[in-house]
Design goal:
Elements: H1 2-30, H2 32-52, H3 65-76, H4 86-89, H5 92-107, H6 109-121, H7 126-136, H8 157-185, H9 190-205, H10 224-239, H11 241-250, H12 259-283, H13 295-312, H14 324-336, H15 349-363, E1 369-371, E2 374-376, H16 378-406, H17 410-421, H18 436-451, H19 453-460
Antiparallel strand pairs: 1-2
Helix pairs in contact: 1-2, 2-3, 2-5, 2-19, 3-18, 6-7, 6-8, 8-9, 8-10, 8-11, 9-10, 10-13, 11-12, 12-13, 12-14, 12-15, 13-14, 14-17, 15-16, 16-17, 16-18, 18-19
Length: 479
């Protein structure tokens, strides 16, 4: 009798295990967007617990829940905003946790899961490819048809994952080597430089912007080589892994680059140059920033700030000392962000490019949006409009709530909220003074910005049913 009961229990347990495993497999493939959100939330909770440990702080004390949670969100979402002094608050263990967290968060939840599967099994099944494809092209998260030439074909996902892993390791290693000597020349010991260099390399390539040194970049504000390396690392992280993958295959054949690669690179360069020129003009006479510096330093710092608004988050000056006109310009650049499927946030440069091309085509009276001999389909244009509207809504709501809680100047609140949404990390100083309710609101803003407006929309619409009929057409008056 006991043997039969044990056998029945074992059989029941096996059936339950299979059912749970089947549900999990179906969940990861039928709704990769929701799975990504679940993984990100789980990682945030784990890192909140780790950062709450006394061993994570320099003084071996418990970090308040709001600060630990906010730092975990900022770490996993590669943002760089902080409510504590990153250089003095955290211990070696805490810095190690943050270093690991930003590299995990930079890869993306679905990409990380697929990479682990590739390492373990040395091959990718269809489910793993579909999961990774959701990270390389967010449009695959919705139920409609997707043109595989938009980014990376499904059959190339395995190659892309290898490029992601290798490029992350290689770029961060090269950047760390290049930064080692400038860190030594700034007065740090060779032992300190051994961990400061990789830390800065990770924070720049992942576009996080945390600084492990007291005073941030103050020790390097005239070290143009150090700042140039940081800028290049931020640029490589912000253009996106699909672009890096395309360049690794066809670097010398620009005409054969995918449309996504062309739009990303061209728009990024245009915004970088335009931002630098705008900051140079607006801040040229501001004594609180670089108005009293020589022409070369002023020009360099203007373009450095332009590069950091792409999502880098590093700053030589205090953004709170910018003129309000410059703060508005920086907010606009931060809102756009970097490339799709990158470590940067914002609505993405390709979204801006598609919207600009649609406006131009409408002004010229063209029926379709065309560029570089290709036609951009209407569903991509609709997604671009939705991303813009959803992003603006998130920023507006967060700004209103935090402004009401803190009664702080609107320009400062708007700047920090957009920095949070776009996972940039620049701050006017407001974030470090926020009360706990405002900290939680800003943490939610960071999460929604990192997970992505398209992914959030796809997660909500994952179970939507197809409509097999069409309603009568009626045109409202627009404009």
């Amino acid at each position: 009798m006991a043997t039969s009961r044990s056998a029945a229990f074992a059989g029941s347990l096996e059936r339950t295990s299979r059912a749970v495993g089947g549900y999990f497999r179906d969940f990861t493939t039928s709704s990769p967007a929701r799975f990504a959100i679940l993984v990100f939330v789980s990682l945030i909770l784990i890192f909140t617990a780790l950062l709450s440990l006394p061993i994570a702080t320099e003084g071996r004390s418990h970090t308040p829940l709001a600060d630990a949670l906010f730092t975990a969100v900022s770490t996993i979402c590669v943002t760089g905003l902080s409510t504590v002094d990153m250089a003095t608050h955290w211990s070696a263990f805490g810095h190690a946790v943050i270093f690991v967290g930003v590299n995990i968060g930079a890869l993306g939840a679905l990409t990380l899961a697929s990479l682990l599967g590739l390492v373990i099994s040395r091959r990718l099944g269809l489910r793993a490819k579909l999961m990774a494809a959701g990270d390389t092209n967010p449009l695959r998260s919705h139920g409609g048809p997707v043109n595989e030439s938009q980014t990376v074909r499904l059959g190339e996902v395995g190659q892309l994952l290898r490029v992601i892993a290798l490029s992350t390791l290689l770029i961060e290693a090269v950047v760390a080597v290049l930064l080692y000597v400038p860190i030594l020349s700034a007065g740090y010991s060779w032992l300190d430089a051994l961990w400061i260099a990789p830390y800065y390399a990770a924070m720049s390539f992942t576009n996080t912007g945390f600084t492990p040194t007291v005073g941030g970049l103050e020790s390097f504000h005239t070290n143009y080589f150090f700042l140039s390396v940081i800028m290049m690392s931020v640029f490589l992280g912000s253009i996106g892994f699909p672009v890096i993958y395309a360049l690794s295959r066809q670097l010398r054949a620009p005409k054969r680059w995918p449309l996504h690669t062309k739009l990303t690179l061209i728009t990024t360069v245009i915004l970088f140059v335009a931002g630098g020129v705008v900051f140079l003009i607006l801040e040229y006479g501001n004594p609180a920033t670089w108005g009293e510096s020589d022409a070369w330093d002023t020009t360099f710092q203007a373009f450095f700030l332009s590069a950091m608004t792409r999502s880098g988050g590093f700053s030589v000056i205090d953004p709170g000392h910018l003129y309000e006109s410059s703060m508005l310009a920086a907010s606009m650049l931060m809102f756009v962000g970097g490339g799709s499927a990158s470590t940067a946030g914002g609505i993405k440069v390709t979204t801006l490019a598609v919207l600009a091309l649609a406006v131009w085509s409408e002004a010229k009276g063209r029926r379709s949006v065309e560029v570089f001999g290709r036609r951009i389909p209407s569903d991509v244009q609709r997604v671009a409009v939705a991303v813009l509207a959803w992003g603006a809504t998130i920023v507006a709501l967060s700004t209103i709530i935090i402004a009401q809680i803190t009664k702080a100047p609107l320009s400062s609140v708007l700047f920090d909220v957009i920095s949070a949404f776009a996972t940039v990390g620049l701050s006017t100083g407001l974030t470090a003074t926020l009360p706990d309710p405002a900290i939680y609101v800003l943490a939610v803003t960071i999460f929604m910005g990192r997970v992505g407006t398209v992914t959030l929309a796809a997660a909500v619409a994952a179970t939507s049913r197809s409509q097999h009929y069409a309603l009568p057409v009626e045109r409202p008056i627009v404009g």
